[in-house]
Amino acid sequence: MRDRRPFVIFGFIAWWIVLGVLITGFPIKNGQQVMYPPDKGLGPNPYVGEDIKNVQRFSMKDFTSFMFGNQPSRGPKGTTFDQVNRRKEIPPMATVVHDTTRFGCAEMVEGFYGPVNPQKVQLPSAEELTQFIKDAGKYFGAVDVAIADLGPNPAMWFWEDDSFGYQIEVKPEEHRYAIVFALEEKNSTHPYPTAVNLDSLKYYSKQSKGYWDDDYVAGHLAEMIRMMGYHAWGHNNSFVRSVPLAVLAGMGEYARFGNMITLNWGSNVRLSSVTTDLPLIAGHPIDIGVHDFCNMCTRCYDYCPTQAIPRSEMDFMGVHKYVDNLWKCRRATVVGLKDLTDASTCTICRDVCPYVKDTAYLGNKIGRIIVSRSHIGRRFLLNLDYLLYSQWNKHGIGEITKQRRERLREVSLKYPEGDWCQEWLGKGAASLEARRSYRQKNPAGILAVAKGGIGIVHPFYSKEDLADPNFGKWPSWVDPWGRFVAGYEQGEPGAPRLDLRPTVRVIGTAVLSGVGGSPMGLYTAQGLTPEEAKKQVPATWPGSGYETATNPFSNAYAW
Amino acid sequence: MQTAKMATTVPKWVMRLVGLTWYEWLAWIIQAGLVATFVVVTSTQFQESEARAGWIMILLTILFGGPGFWLLLKYRPAPGSKFNSFDVGAIICFAVWAILLFYLIVPLPQAGGPTPFGSPVQ
Asked: Are the beta carbons of A68 and A319 closer than 8 angstroms?
């Protein structure tokens, strides 16, 4: 027999080149999904029927935007997340952290809505402007920013009312695009927090900060865009459907457990957004292999203690997708074992998702590239992930989530399906009177006084803008609830929420425009010395946590 | 001019390296890439405090990388020789890879039948 070594070496080369191409997807991407245009579907989730055309806007009483994604907005009547989270299991120290970091940022929420600067700034090209907005979002703290075109009927992306039953009036021409922000939220493989320990502190501070950051980014951007002379509303979980917007913008793909999965952060992101008429360049749905991966992987399904995650996709209201049972999910996580004070925390589906891997390490980056390019690579890594982390339940996520799963199963058994729905619909969101009671008691609740406002560096104001005598004065406007707020044209000071008049200050060559940045900023603008400023009774109320929700001057709408 | 003394001082492995054919170079590059990838993924497990996963990855690194090293370093049957232990070794190398890849690519145990995680579904 001749020298066989060259043949074996060639076999070795061919073997690994072929397998390398198949597993990594380089240079040939394999296993791509069908991508539907927005009028046919969202990414790989097609519209399968005509029902979609009949679905316009959902009332908040429907609780969740079950058509595209699940962004459950809030608990039953009168529930604030503070009440939900101020339950007895939470150790005092965690409550302190929780309140300190705030479950949402009232100041920034108030930046969600407001009057528009009548002086439109001169914009750069659409490309530059889009890049600027994305950079600004990342500067404020987002890890990813994407833009969705809301199409000819932007209102369909919005809830039809707020959680108190008041209609939201969406003018299509003012909401052409949605700027969607993703903020990273670290993995929370924590045991059920029943004691003062590092886990509970980490969990609650992380979660609270996540909400705060959401509001911070959306509030800043919305305020900035309005100062540029364009309409903008900020959104956290309120008013728009964050997940489908993010999918439409190309930030990630819809996943089995009803959230969006991004390539870099899995589903461990919090979403917020700004809807605006600023002329931007929109993204489009992307294929990063999530749909294919979810079709093979059942980990969230396996781990869900309330059996809320579906085994397979289904046609639901004209869309072929995974439809999660939000009633089951929220029954455990919002209502709890006994009552609202006994609610639990879950997020197990997110925590066990194979896409959730730390972004800092090279090994995970390699995995992400493979997963996004190759069906065979996805199979390889899925099995590898199970081999590394799940095969022996005594370790890893199995053990970490065991306590939570057992507790949530207990909750699930206590509440047969339907009970909670009845409770909800009977006493909660469906009752218009109940929903409006807070508002009736607190007529100023929506138009809260300003808590300082937002100072931003504004690159677009020209000398002509600054020379205009009306520059910086707020015009009349209609708030999201359709209420007319008289502005300077009618001799009024402007929006009540902007108690602080906008100031324009030139610092060097940069123009600082805004409303002071803080009450102390206002005092500075008024020429008060720091000593005098300290003696002022604050016109603003620095509430946080539970107190914020019950403060009549606070906007308790958009947690 | 190379002296006899110089020739004797050049290490043997250097001479073998210089003497590699182009396809052997290519094979070594592939082998290095394969092992480097596994080493990176292994180190990631330890960086993430997933020691158990790290040890599994060390085992996988040996299983995926070892046969390549054996083929490139040790597989040298005499030209013209009959089927012998070298060929058995080569078959074992490819069989190891085939079994590993089959196990990691073909079945999806979590997507059919009872789930192994104590799910409430069961």
From this structure: yes
